[in-house]
Specification:
Length: about 350
């Protein structure tokens, strides 16, 4: 009887222990569940605050004029299209105004590309970068202006004294050199001769002797030029020797010049001449003239020193540039500038080329 009572008590104690353990376990689970719930509530509250803050910031940005990445991309694209359209309209308006004002198409196009030399030839436009490796003349756009007598004057800040000159050939007919001298002409560049553009025959200018003797007799300093159509170095040497023979009796103070221009004819013997061939001809002529004790020079227009020759390859020689009107478009150094073909000088019937010299010869 005693043993049965003891077993009953032991069993009851075990059940009580199990109950206590279960209560403790359930309590822990409840506490953990409560803690997790509290954690979730806190996190949810934080997320709601962050969302509210983000919405508030977004509303503030939108109110202040800021945009999302997508909106920004669309705005940039729209602005680019509007800017492109405005640029096109601006360019069209500028070109129209220049053309209506009487400017040539080439002049109007040149104004759009100030960092390049724009050359028109055979219906095409060529764009050549302006090189800093070649000496520039340094004159400003407003340094020259036309005077009342039609002669260009220097009005810049430097101490530059211009010499005024003409260049003539048989096309000016008979010239009254006394009248020319009285009209303020300091020098004359006289055509000594030329080579035929198709057959290549060497010819002396019909008025050479009359012009050079008339100019010298009236106190006008002279230089001479030869219109070249040499297609190789041998012909350039031939041209130089002819000029040296023609000027031998006279005092030539100004340069002896080779005229390099492209002939405006499909039949011209130089029509397919390369720039390398033009440069070789010019150098042979100039070096021959220099060896004879005269000052050599190369004459040409903007096309001559860009397409026919590279200005950098003839940079060692004196330059006579032909460009009509102001401001001078050619950026590189020069010694004589032929600035018009429609000049008026006493003693010369009709139009004549006018020049200024900035070098003391």
């Amino acid at each position: 009887m005693k043993n049965n009572l003891q077993d009953t008590r032991e069993k009851r104690g075990i059940r009580n222990t199990h109950n206590i353990v279960s209560i403790i376990f359930l309590s822990l689970v409840s506490i953990m569940a409560l803690s997790f719930s509290i954690f979730l509530l806190v996190e949810n509250a934080n997320l709601q605050r962050e969302e509210a803050a983000f919405k508030s910031e977004l509303e503030s940005l939108t109110t202040d004029g800021y945009f999302t990445a997508g909106e920004t991309s669309r705005l940039i694209e729209k602005a680019s299209e509007e800017s492109e359209e405005k640029t096109k309209t601006s360019i069209k308006d500028m070109l129209r105004k220049k053309l209506e004002a009487g400017e040539s198409a080439t002049s109007a196009i040149r104004s759009l590309f100030p960092e390049q030399i724009v050359v028109s030839s055979s219906g095409r436009y060529y764009f050549l970068p302006i090189s800093d490796e070649i000496e520039h003349h340094g004159f400003k756009e407003g340094d020259f202006e036309f005077g009342d007598n039609g002669f260009i004057q220097y009005v810049g800040e430097d101490d530059i004294k211009l010499k005024h000159g003409v260049d003539v050939s048989r096309f000016q007919g008979t010239i009254d050199w006394e009248q020319v001298a009285s009209d303020g002409i300091d020098f004359a560049i006289i055509r000594a001769g030329y080579r035929g553009t198709t057959e290549g025959k060497l010819l002396e200018d019909d008025k050479f002797i009359e012009n050079i003797e008339g100019a010298i007799a009236n106190g006008i300093d002279v230089g001479v030029y030869f219109y070249s159509q040499a297609v190789n170095e041998e012909e350039a040497l031939e041209e130089a020797r002819l000029v040296l023979d023609l000027i031998e009796p006279y005092h030539i103070k100004y340069p002896v010049i080779i005229d390099i221009e492209s002939a405006e004819s499909e039949e011209a013997r130089t029509v397919d001449l390369s720039s390398d061939q033009y440069e070789k001809a010019a150098k042979v002529f100039c070096d021959t003239i220099k060896a004879a004790g005269y000052k050599p020079m190369i004459y040409g227009n903007v096309k001559s020193f860009t397409l026919l020759m590279d200005a950098a390859d003839v940079d060692d020689y004196d330059i006579w540039i032909a460009y009509y009107g102001t401001p001078l478009y050619y950026p590189y150094h020069f010694n004589i500038w032929q600035y018009t073909a429609n000049g008026k000088v006493k003693g010369i019937d009709g139009n004549v080329d006018l020049n200024v010299c900035i070098t003391e010869y």
